[in-house]
Amino acid sequence: MGVLVNRKGGVYHVIVGDANGIFIPELTLYPLGRKVLRGLRLIHTHLKSEGINQDDITDLSLLRLDALIVIGLKDGVPDNVTLAHLYSDRDDATYEIQGPVPYHSMDREFQNFDQVLAMIEEGLLSRRTGYDVEDKRERAVLVSVTTASRFDQEDSMEELKELAESSNVIVLDTVMQRVRQINPKYLMGEGKLKELVINSMNKGATLLVFDQDLNPSQTRTIGDVTELKVIDRSQLILDIFARRAHSKDGKVQVELAQLKYRLPRLTGKGEAMSKLMGGIGGRGPGEMKLEIDRRRVRDRISLLEKQLKSLSRARKQRKAKRVSQGLPIISIIGYTNAGKSTLLNSLTRSRTVVEDKMFATLDTASRRLRFPKERDVIITDTVGFIRDLPRDLFAAFKATLEELEDADLLMHVVDVSNPRYEQHITSVEKILSDLKLSDKPVLLIFNKEDLVDVEDIKPLCERYNALSVSALRQETLYRLLVALENKIWPM
After folding, report:
1. Buried b (16+ CB within 10 A) or exposed e, 64-103
2. Residue 78 and residue 71 in contact, taking contact as beta carbons nearer than 8 Å
C-alpha cells in the first residue's frame, strides 16, 4: 500500500497495489511547473522489509517528491522505516537515504524534516545557474538521437539551437546520442530517457526539444515519462512561423500547417480534453470528447483550405496585373537569416523588418527597383528556406513558393560568413528541385563579405560562379546591379 501526503499532512491519494509494487497516479492537483519539489511525500510498504530500491529512487527523482518513506514489514507487522530525499551537492543533484531505523523510533529519527526540506529546496534551486523566477521564458534542453555521423549531428544541433533562440527559448543544455538503431518507442533507451529527464529537471528545464521529428506514438510515450513539455524540430519551426506571420496569407498557411501537424497527435489527454479512464462509465465520454475535438480540427482544416484557395486566386490576379505592366520579376531566395530582407532594403531603400534571427520575416514583400538606365523590375523577397522543412509547412507554403514560377530570375543569397554555407546552398537547391524550379536562371550572391577574409572570398566566387556583396555597404551593390541588369537584359 501507499499514501501520498501533502505538506499540511493531508492525504492526497491512497494506493493499493500487489506484491510487485504500487502504481502512482497522475499528480494533476500538484503540478511541478517551475518548482524544484512537488510538495508531496510518498509513504509505502515493502512486504519483505526490503530497503529503498532503484525503482523508488527513480520515482523520487522523476516525480520530484519531497521525500519517499518506505515501511518495511516483517510477518505483516511494521519493522523498520527508511527515508530518501533529493539533495544538491557541488556538482549534481542526487539523493540521500536515511535509515533504516526501527519503526517505533521513527518520530525521533526524522524530526524537524520540514526544516531539512527548506534547505533541500534552497540547495536544488541554487544549482539552476542564472535561474530567474521572474523570467517566464521556456527553458529547454535540446536532444539529438541519430544514426548519422558526428559532424552532421553537431551541425544539425547548432542549427536547432539557433531555432530555439529565435523562438525566445533559453537553451540550458544540449544532449547528443548516436545509436546503431533508433528505438521506435522512445527514440533512445527507456533508461537513458529517464536519466535525460532527471538531469533536465535538475537544471530547471521546462521543455525538451528533439532534433528528430517524433511520430505521434513517440510523442505520447515520451510525454508519459515526464511532465516536461516535449516537442520536436518541426513543432519548433511551426511555433516560430506562428509568431512571425502577419499577413492574411501567412496566418492561414501557418495555422493550416499547425492543425495538420497536431491532428494525428490528438490523444485523450490534455487541457481541453477528457482523460480516457478505465472502468464502467469512464471510457465512453472520453472517446466522445476526443472525437468532437478531432472533428472540429478537421472542419477548421477544411475551412482554411478553402480560404487558401481564395487567397491563391487573389495572388493570380495580382500576377496578371504585373504581367500586364510588362515588368521583369526578380525573386530573392536563400536560407533563413542569409540577409535577404536587408539586401532588399538596401537595393530599394525600403524598410522591411530585419532581425538577426532565423525566419525574422515570413511575409512576402515586393518592391520596384530602378536601374541606372531607367529600367524597372519588380523585386520580391520570399520566406527563408531551411533543411528538413516540416512537410505540412512546406505543403501550406507551396502556393506562396509557386510564385517563384513567375520570376524571370532567382537571386540566391548565401551567408558566406556562416560555416555551414555549403549545406545551405544544397538545401535551397533541393527545395527548388522539389518545386520543379531547377531550370530557372539563378544568380548566386555571397552576402556578408565584410565578415570574411577577402582572400577567401575570391576563390569561392570563382568556384561557384558567384558574386560577393555586403548588404550593409552600398558601395558593394553597384556590381550586383550590373550583374542583374546583364542577366535580365543581356546585350
Report:
1. bbbbbbbbbbeeeeebbbbbbbbebeeeebeeeebbbeee
2. yes
Q: What is the pLDDT of residues 7-61, one digit of tens each?
A: 888 898 898 988 777 888 888 788 777 777 888 889 888 888 888 888 888 888 8
Question: Cβ neighbours of residue 116 under 8 Å, at least 6 residues apart?
Answer: 85
H or E stretch covering 430: helix 421-434
Three-class secondary structure of residue 286 per DSSP: helix
Burial of 345 (0-12, 13-18, 19+ CB in 10 A): buried
- Kind plus residue range of the DSSP H or E element containing 71: strand 67-74
Handedness of CA 390, 157, 175, 207 (dihedral sign): negative
**pTM of the model as a whole:** 0.75
Q: Which helix (H) or strand (E) holds 177?
A: strand 170-178
In angstroms, rounded to a whole number, what is the distance separating the alpha carbons of residues 97 and 435? 62
Residues in CB range of 83: below 8 A, 6 or more apart: 67, 68, 69, 70, 97, 98, 99, 110, 113
Instruction: Report the chain's terminal Cα–Cα distance, integer Å.
Output: 89
**Can you tell me the distance from the alpha carbon of 6 to that of 40, in angstroms, rounded to the nearest whole number?**
5
How buried is residue 232: exposed, middle or buried, by Cβ count under 10 Å (0-12/13-18/19+)?
Answer: buried
Tens digits of per-residue pLDDT, 82-129? 888 887 665 555 777 877 888 777 777 677 777 778 887 777 777 665
